[in-house]
Write a structure and sequence with these properties.
Elements: H1 2-22, E1 34-36, E2 46-51, E3 53-58, E4 66-67, E5 75-82, E6 85-92, E7 99-107, E8 110-113, E9 124-126, E10 131-141, E11 144-154, E12 158-164, H2 168-185, E13 199-200, E14 203-204, H3 207-217, H4 225-239, E15 241-243, H5 244-250, H6 254-257, H7 267-270, E16 272-273, H8 275-288, E17 293-297, E18 302-308, E19 311-315, H9 317-320, E20 323-325, E21 333-335, E22 352-354
Parallel strand pairs: 4-11, 15-16, 15-20
Antiparallel strand pairs: 1-2, 2-12, 3-5, 5-6, 6-9, 7-8, 7-10, 10-11, 11-12, 13-14, 17-18, 17-22, 18-19, 20-21
Helix pairs in contact: 3-8, 4-8
């Protein structure tokens, strides 16, 4: 009898242990959480930047290009959550609606074809169980088929998020470093809007000109901040070139190398510059349009952090540029590849955030 009781007890304990091992743990998140998704089906991936509503965008790029970033794009997927309910539909900021090739919802070991269940005017609604999910959509534009994704994390409610291959601890460390530097510098979204305060070598950096130009780029004030930021990002990448020659030959920008601070080498006039020039121009234009923006820096590089959807996003325009000045003549421009969209670049440790240099 005792032996039988011991066997039953052992069986119960073993069953409970196996159940615990095979059950995806529920984890309550907030907008600022960082979650390792290994136990949720996304092996070795990390979810971050949790929001309740977003539009992820796709842009013109090379064939089969995979693009996912926090900006609202020319077209893509609009997603909203209420409690555990998720609403999805396609959207377009073009003057037409691109063809939807396919839309697939995957997660929890299954894959569902949503192509015929949602569109530009029709929402798809579902209530997922706790776990991680991905909506992959393929749009056809200008003879290209481009994939756009929306990632979803569900615990006691549904969240929209971004996913990276970065380790959870590594990403959390990066986020905390940024917060500390922002706090030490006294930057908040509210006081990161003064576009006139952006200076370079003690002088305003064509602030008025960049501000006026931004209004020519952003023609519709009713568009979201995410879409405006993408328009500014794309314009700078498409109309300015990185000064490879100055960096390779002079080791710095031409203005500092020649000690010529007259404005002769300003990015606004030459359309050629290094990372500092691009980061400053982007910051001025974002701030002028009411979008908080700061510059991040280390010993050898500058990039930006921009405030969208109540979250600070790092974005590296220099890394996204495909036009290069490779000779002493700044008018000679070469093109390499295509425009990119960089988020956190872990190769660049943050040492400071600033608006003046």
């Amino acid at each position: 009898m005792k032996k039988r009781i011991r066997i039953i007890a052992f069986t119960i304990i073993l069953t409970l242990l196996l159940t615990a091992c095979n059950t995806t743990p529920e984890r309550k998140v907030t907008a600022d959480s960082v979650v390792n998704l290994s136990g949720y089906g996304f092996t070795n991936q990390t979810a971050y930047n949790f929001v309740k509503s977003m539009k992820t965008g796709s842009t013109f790029a090379s064939e089969d290009s995979y693009i996912s970033f926090p900006y609202e794009g020319y077209w893509g997927i609009e997603a909203t959550t209420e409690g555990k309910t998720v609403y999805l539909r396609a959207y377009s900021n073009l003057d037409y609606e691109p063809e939807i090739i396919s839309i697939t919802l995957s997660g929890k070991g299954s894959e569902n074809d949503l192509t015929d269940q949602m569109g530009f005017d029709e929402y798809y609604k579902f209530n997922p169980e706790p776990g991680a999910y991905r909506v992959s959509s393929v749009f056809a534009v200008n003879d290209y088929e481009i994939t756009n994704v929306v990632d979803i994390f569900v615990d006691d409610e549904a969240w929209l998020c971004e996913v990276t291959w970065m380790d959870e601890k590594e990403f959390t460390k990066r986020r905390n470093e940024f917060k500390t530097l922002m706090s030490e510098a006294g930057f908040t979204p509210q006081n990161s809007l003064d576009w006139k305060s952006v200076t370079h070598n003690g002088r305003a950096y064509d602030n008025e000109e960049w501000a006026a130009l931004s209004r020519e780029i952003i023609l519709d004030d009713d568009k979201s901040d995410g879409f405006k930021v993408m328009l500014l990002h794309d314009w700078l990448c498409d109309h300015t070139a990185f000064d490879d020659y100055a960096l390779d030959i002079y080791g710095t920008n031409r203005e500092d190398y020649f000690s010529d601070f007259s404005g002769k080498y300003d990015l606004y006039d030459t359309r050629v510059g290094v990372c500092t020039d691009v980061a400053e121009a982007f910051m001025i234009m974002c701030r002028y349009n009411g979008i908080p923006c700061v510059s991040c820096a280390n010993d050898g590089h500058r990039w930006n952090a921009v405030y969208i959807n109540d979250i600070w996003y790092e974005t590296d325009l220099t890394n996204d540029m495909y036009r290069k000045a490779t000779s002493e003549d700044m008018r000679k421009i070469t093109q390499e590849g295509s425009r990119g969209y960089s988020a956190v670049n872990m190769n660049n440790s943050i040492l400071e955030v600033a608006t003046t240099y």
